[in-house]
Design brief:
It is built from one helix and 30 strands. Strands 12, 13, 14, 15 and 16 form a five-stranded antiparallel sheet that branches. Strands 17, 18, 19, 20 and 21 form a five-stranded antiparallel sheet that branches. A four-stranded antiparallel sheet has the order 3-2-1-30, with no helix packed on it. The chain is mainly beta. 35% of the residues are buried.
């Protein structure tokens, strides 16, 4: 009899343990799942004039989600530039509407289940000034647009994706901006600018106000022709056609005298980004078809060329996967069939490998990336 009661009691204890175990396991899996995400690439092409959306898997492969062909209803004109909001809820794009003889800025909501585009949320007629760069603040509330008339236009983005025009700012004189950025905290905008005729070369710095307005802080003479800029912590790096300058932030909107680095293995590198752990600058060179990895000294910010990798064809645009281990490059060239490549990047060793090529239409010119959480 005692043995019978003992077995019943043992069974109840084991059942309770199993219930607790399943509950704990379920909670752990749910937590793990809620922190997971899917990544999507938005690739526009200047040749075939369409927008292609791909699911970007962590093994480096991409899978087509949808193609929005010009004239299909959602996209009716050739797209010039795209940019996703940092919260990955909206995609901004610019196209030329021949019926209005004007450039149009539109925002689309991104379907959080499929990564595809839903209906337009907002639209603004930009007139005849052609835009070339779109920048969102990290909180996804403001959008800055640079055009070929040396203007910066400011917009606010509502929670439903609607656009509100705020202002147009001039003041870059005859200088043309190349690859401007916002600092990771969204407090400052850096705009490398040059005039190839007068040889006037500068880096403009603007402070971003809470209402989205830009306040001019400083303009530094770079001496050489700037082509790109990246920043991390207290360090700002400007890529030139013949070298890289390193600045240190010495106050809000103020930089130190530059240090110049010419030790690199590429000729005309475009600084693309600093990887997540702040160890490396990733750069591309279209003249030699290379990706270069520059190591950042954590003590003084100085640079050392760590590695180069030869790409199949000339790089045009660049994106880094949120996992910090995959690089995407769009490229073009006569007669090529594969014009979007993914590469594995090891953030510990700086090695780049395993290039996989894909055909994504005629002359891809722009890549945007969205990171969507799995509910």
């Amino acid at each position: 009899m005692k043995q019978k009661y003992f077995l019943i009691l043992l069974g109840l204890i084991l059942s309770s343990a199993l219930i607790v175990g399943c509950g704990g396991g379920s909670k752990s899996n749910s937590s793990k799942l809620s922190s997971s995400y899917l990544t999507y690439l938005y690739v526009c092409t200047s040749g075939s004039s369409d927008l292609r959306i791909y699911s970007a898997l962590t093994d480096g492969t991409i899978s087509l989600v949808n193609t929005h062909t010009r004239g299909s209803g959602l996209i009716n004109y050739p797209i010039i530039a795209t940019k996703t909001t940092p919260n990955s809820k909206y995609l901004a794009l610019v196209y030329y509407d021949s019926s209005q003889s004007a450039y149009i800025l539109e925002t689309y909501s991104i379907n959080q289940q499929t990564g595809d585009l839903d209906a337009p949320c907002g639209s603004f007629n930009l007139g005849t000034s052609q835009p070339f760069t779109l920048l969102f603040t990290p909180d996804s509330k403001f959008l800055y647009l640079m055009d070929d008339q040396r203007n910066i236009l400011g917009f606010s983005i509502k929670s439903n994706g609607a656009l509100t025009y705020l202002w147009t700012m001039t003041g870059l004189n005859t200088l043309t901006v190349y690859n401007p950025i916002l600092t990771p905290d969204g407090k400052f905008l850096y705009a490398p600018a040059r005039d190839n005729n007068s040889k006037d070369n500068k880096i403009y710095i603007y402070e971003v106000n809470a209402n989205g307005a830009l306040n001019f802080c400083n303009a530094y003479d770079t001496g050489r022709a700037p082509s790109s800029v990246v920043c991390y912590g207290d360090y700002v790096y400007i890529g030139h056609l013949d070298g890289i300058d390193q600045f240190r932030v010495v106050g809000p909107g103020s930089l130190s005298e530059p240090k110049t680095f010419t030790e690199r293995q590429t000729s005309f590198c475009i600084l693309r980004c600093i990887n997540q752990n702040g160890k490396y600058i990733l750069a591309t060179d279209s003249s030699s078809n290379k990706i270069e990895v520059l190591k950042i000294n954590p003590t003084d910010g100085t640079l050392t060329s760590k590695n180069t990798f030869t790409t199949a064809v000339s790089p045009v645009d660049f994106a880094l996967h949120p996992n910090n281990r995959l690089i995407y490059i769009s490229c073009n060239g006569n007669g090529i069939t594969e014009n979007l490549y993914s590469y594995s990047f090891n953030p510990d060793t700086a090695n780049i490998s395993n290039g996989q090529g894909y055909s994504v239409g005629d002359t891809p010119c722009d890549i945007s990336l969205a990171k969507i959480a799995i509910p």
